Known about the structure:
By secondary structure, the chain is α/β, with parallel strands linked by helices. It contains 11 helices and 12 strands.
Amino acid sequence: MYAIIGITGKVGSAVAENLLKKNLPVKAILRNHAKAGYWEHKGAKIAIADLKDENALTKAFEKTAGVFLMTPPLWDSNDPMREHDQMLHALTLAIAKTKPGKVVFLSSVGGHLATGTGAIRKLYDLENTLAELNIPTVGIRAAWFMENYTGSLGQAEDSGILSSFLVRTDERIPMIAIADIGSLASELLQENWTGHRIIELEGPARYAPADVARLLSDAVQKEILTEAIPDKDFESTYLSYGFTMEGSLAMSEMIRGFNRGTLVFEENGIEHAKGDTTLKQVLNPFLI
């Protein structure tokens, strides 16, 4: 049995779908029953557990061959670091008690850095805390999500401008499709190893915001330009998305790390993998 945290999100659902396609047993860990029906119909078992509830998590992790673990971004929290610490404490205690066969977890590019990473700092804590467990673990340090651009395409088509938090809009950086994260994570859950691993994951090629604009330009048959969001507007832009001030500050610090060029893969001595999904394949359903 493979327990999946975050199964109602895009990454967690991709992991679960890959396992279920192979007729492997999945336990969906949900905060409530609201979305249980979908996963029950798919053949998954259901466990209800808040990520701060050690006892509920312990029950959910019992007799599992592996756990896929990711923590929520908490952009609606007024103290995301404190809340994340509470989740991490409950999760690690539950894992230590139940000793699942392995833990596969989602981290990020820059997850090895203790400072200057903003929102990614939570994942630095996640990596280091799970590395203290006496069971096999592997963290997937995912590159910039290609899907980050899907919500901007409609506005870009209307205005002719694709806004970008990345100020060097022609500079190609590692990006990854969610489907490829789900594929790798599901494969790792079926593997056996000892100790603690980190795998840095990117797509088959590197892309820039300008590449997104070019794909959109071709699809809508008009020129779409890229325009960098001014640094001074980062926080207010995130606030306009509905983030709290603390969430906006964390995201803005993260983006500044990308723009400084300090938020990069560790590379040396770290496993590296590449997915197969291209930026065009990810964006195509939103361009038609």
